[in-house]
Amino acid sequence: MATPKRDAAAEQLTQQSKKHQVDKDVITANWGTAVAGKDASLTVGYNGPILLQDYTLIDEIAHFTRERIPERVVHAKGAGAFGYFEVTHDISQYSAAKVFSEIGKKTPIAVRFSQVAGELGYADTVRDIRGFAIKFYTDEGIWDLVGNNQPVFFVKDCALFPSFIHVVKRNPATHLRPDYDMFWDMVTLRAETTHTTMIFFGDRGIPASYRKMHGFGTNTYAFVNAEGKFFYCKFHHVCQQPIENLTSEEAQRIAGIDPDYHTRDLYNAIENGDYPAWNMYVQIMTPEQAAASPYDPFDDTKVWLRSEYPLIPVGRFVLNKNPNNYFAQIEQIGFDPAHLVPGIEPSPDRMLQGRLFAYGDTHRYRLGPNYLQFPVNRPFKVTNFSRDGDATYHSQGGAPVYHPNSFRGPEDDRRARALAPVLPLNGDVKRIDSGGDDNFTQPGLLYRRVMNEGEKQRLADNIVSWLARANTVIQERTITNILNKVDEDLGRRVREGINNSQPHATVDL
Ligand code: HEM
Hints:
Blueprint: H1 12-18, H2 55-64, E1 78-87, E2 106-115, E3 130-138, E4 141-148, H3 161-168, H4 180-189, H5 194-201, E5 215-216, E6 221-224, E7 230-239, H6 248-257, H7 261-271, E8 277-285, H8 287-292, E9 312-321, H9 326-331, E10 344-346, H10 350-366, H11 414-419, H12 441-450, H13 453-467, H14 472-486, H15 488-500
Antiparallel strand pairs: 1-2, 1-9, 2-3, 3-4, 5-7, 6-7, 6-10, 7-8, 8-9
Helix pairs in contact: 4-14, 13-15, 14-15
The protein binds protoporphyrin IX containing FE.
């Protein structure tokens, strides 16, 4: 029979079975003893009920009914892989983190790519931001750099993050998404969303592959060097594969044929030895430059201009190993922007500050209090006073569980203490809404200086495909209050598009 050529993902079981050709394993219960028979339950005669003493059956069914855990509240659909980070340039003048300590040093990493709004089974090729999260298993603990494929984000104060996510998720009454009124209502009421909205509806809104997009730390972080000197920084991961995006039409067609398109693409590339790679760069701003900056360097709706803060090379990372169990290694991986190492610190970026709380909190709910003991999340060494709790695997060898103690328990680390920055801060405690800061200069530059004619028209068309479905008051507000302020040419194109739009035209998912 003629079989079409199959890809590495389709061949997974065949390849796996080749490794087990000699000895077949016996079926065991979850506690390891052999099962007497797998094809039939234990009954009293042919038509009799099943016995409670069929405990291997009960064990299997009881495990099956607990197979699923809550999916991530955002970034539920994703794919991941393993590899390494290698230092190519010396940045010890900025950071004392050991992960950067010498050229050539390699650190194992795990990376998870994702989309933000859809659920676990959603199609990959949707118009959305893509998550780009990296876990570094460093000598001095886990460092998670949890960013996106865009340099900016929709809102800048974590107080607005749950609301923004609600408007891109399902309408709770209709259970439908996108809800065009919710989305454009929020965009027009919070103009700081403009910059990311432009990228969301631009060509980069639907990457062709997780391997063919750049990555960004997006939020502002801080570095501390060995002398205790402090710098602010932004991370950039420059893709070493050609950047490729999908048009709305291509993306919709693929979503119908292969909803797991990005996941399959990443798996096959790695299985075929076509290892994706990115070069890591940082932008550095001194505290003095930050104080004098005309725009807020901690506002994640703005970029730091590269002409003023050039990209400084740091290293490269490569993905060369697929997970062998998606659930254990990718569904249970827990990234957290609060997982930092000495030499890397948070900045006052208000979005980052909120994130420092959110991830550990959600992991303890989604994965349990001991999720950091799972093999994929575990650092090389943990020596502290935390013990026990749900699903404990490690007891730290009977070491003391209290501090201070007289029994050679772990002690404070002088290096970590020396690298902990001392920040002189003062100010009035109050809620300051910075949403009215200049929201249109950078989107205007993006439109006029970066986008060519084709990109401008596709941006307008993609906006029309969502905006034409919103109510007319919100449509008008979007054109007048947002798009015209980016550039009147954009407002004009969108107005024309809406006037000409077909009521049943297709729309991005
Ligand atoms: C205060 C604002 C934010 C909050 C409260 C928040 C919260 C969350 C939560 C609860 C998750 C699910 C984590 C899990 O269950 O594993 C998540 C995932 C994620 N977030 Fe955020 N987030 C915020 C802002 C951001 C920003 C600004 C970015 C990008 C720079 C970002 C990037 C990601 C990524 C990439 C993931 C997926 C991580 C993975 O692959 O497991 N988030 N976020």
